[in-house]
Design a protein that fits this description.
32% of the residues lie in helices and 24% in strands. By secondary structure, the protein is α/β, with parallel strands linked by helices. The strands form 8 sheets. It has a 5-stranded mixed sheet. The mean pLDDT is 96.
């Protein structure tokens, strides 16, 4: 296991619970002593060592061999380099995000297009084209990206059943895309509201979060990205297309942590979320594209709409006010959390019943009861990591695969006992509800689900 922050510490007890392995079969390599006590609790080997371009092979070569599994839960260590290394060693691989080497997210010498998750995904998928039958390497399989792609498939089936659409369960990418098109789904929000709170408030000069501070800060500084739907009529004034790759997404010339969008979840109702770039926004829109030749006939707009815990929101505001210079102190809320829920799901909109949210409403107390060393946010990630790991072990020769390539029923079977209430709810809400109450707005009244109507800043 590379990296041992909140996700590494939370997944370790799940691994021992669900897999028949012994402590001496697990080795942790991490850049700091974070989690060393948890590693000692489970009796696993703990190596404090930063991995760089220059040393990662030398460090990992004695540890990773044929039939082993490299679980990458780090930041600032190249996913592509690790996948290639695993193939050389004959070992399996999983990560929760396609990471560049240190500085990749903030390399201001590179054009913004090259700092996007779109570009990172294209680099990873190029490996698949070069070597199809290779040890399985599951990329971007945490909660989101990851679990939410399986939520989308279940939500599509639920909407089809509830609207009386006769169909067979899709067995291919093309069939899933055609089902989404038949249902008339225009927009998919990965809509998340984290309400976990601590008795210890955020202090000035401190970045507080319920999961990795470095991970959140890094993705928040990348350009805002979204899968770009075929129904969209209004091009964003700061929107940019890519001149390479699959063409399923666009980016904005501003950070995701400075861009807000309107969305809805059952418990929180309507709110503003940050349009943080995430791999699922790109992979889901690509997966659900219907093409005739090179022409896209159908594609949904897909993006993340994230309202983190309130202390994290304050942290982001301070971070932005410092012109994106990260605070000196970082704190992950875990044992000090006293209450709250992480409501994570997918909002599919534009169909006959307007909008449908499907996902997990996991409370912090439920998370603690279900698995030690977790809060509500981390458990949604760690159980999805576990599910992806198990799937890879059951399917060991698939090369590079994304969440959409996995068996969604198998993944949900493993995850569901750890997700708290998993609910689906329809809503009549749309982004024009109660709009223009205070000031006139330039809105597209012909279609409430145009991105123009959803975007706040």
């Amino acid at each position: 296991m590379i990296g041992f922050g909140s996700i590494g510490q939370g997944v370790l007890p799940l691994i021992f619970r669900h897999l028949e392995i012994k402590p001496d079969q697990v080795t942790i390599v991490t850049k700091d002593d974070l989690g060393e006590k948890v590693a000692a609790e489970y009796g696993v080997r703990f190596i404090r060592q930063s991995l760089t371009r220059e040393n990662f092979k030398k460090v990992l070569d004695p540890l990773v061999g044929r039939g082993d599994f490299l679980l990458n839960l780090s930041v600032d260590v190249s996913s592509v380099a690790l996948i290639q290394f695993c193939w050389e060693q004959g070992s399996l691989y999983l990560d929760t995000c396609i990471e560049p080497w240190v500085g990749g997210y903030m390399d201001l010498t590179a054009p913004p297009a090259r700092r996007t998750n779109y570009a990172l995904r294209e680099t990873a998928l190029a490996l698949r084209n070069a070597k199809v039958k290779a040890p399985t390497a599951v990329i971007t399989h945490g909660a989101n990206p990851g679990l939410v792609s399986h939520f989308v498939k279940q939500a599509l089936l639920n909407i089809a059943s509830d609207t009386g659409l006769e169909h067979e369960e899709p067995a291919s990418r093309e069939a899933w895309a055609q089902l989404a098109q038949q249902l008339g789904v225009k927009v998919i929000h990965i809509a998340e509201r984290d309400t976990q709170v601590s008795l210890r408030p955020k202090e000035q000069g401190e970045f507080v979060n319920t999961w990795s501070v470095d991970g959140f800060a890094g993705e928040g500084c990348q350009p805002a990205e979204l899968g770009w739907g075929s129904h969209e009529k209004n091009w964003p004034r700061d929107g940019k297309k890519h001149d390479f790759g699959r063409g399923s997404a666009i980016y904005l010339m501003q950070p995701g942590a400075a861009t807000r969008v309107r969305t809805w979840t059952p418990l929180a109702q309507q709110f503003h979320g940050f349009l943080i770039t995430h791999g699922e926004s790109i992979s889901i829109s690509d997966y659900l594209s219907v093409k005739k030749g090179e022409k896209v006939e159908y594609r949904p707009t897909v993006h993340y709409a994230y309202h983190p815990c309130d202390d994290a929101v304050l942290s982001v505001h301070e971070f932005a006010g410092r012109n994106w210079q990260l605070q000196e102190r970082k704190r992950i809320m875990m044992d000090e959390i006293v209450k709250g829920v992480d409501e994570l799901g997918v909002l599919l909109a534009g169909h006959k019943k307007n909008a449908y949210w499907y996902g997990s409403q996991l409370s912090v107390q439920e998370a603690r009861d279900l698995c030690p060393h977790n809060n509500a946010t981390s458990l949604q990630v760690t159980v999805s990591v576990l599910a992806g790991l198990i799937w890879a072990m059951e399917n060991p020769n698939e090369g590079v695969v994304e969440p959409e390539d996995l068996d969604f029923r198998r993944i949900l079977e493993i995850c569901r006992p750890y997700l708290g209430p998993v609910v689906g709810e329809y809503t009549e809400w749309h982004p024009l509800v109660d709009r223009a109450r205070l000031f006139p707005e330039d809105l597209d009244q012909t279609d409430p689900w145009q991105f123009k109507n959803v975007r706040v800043v």
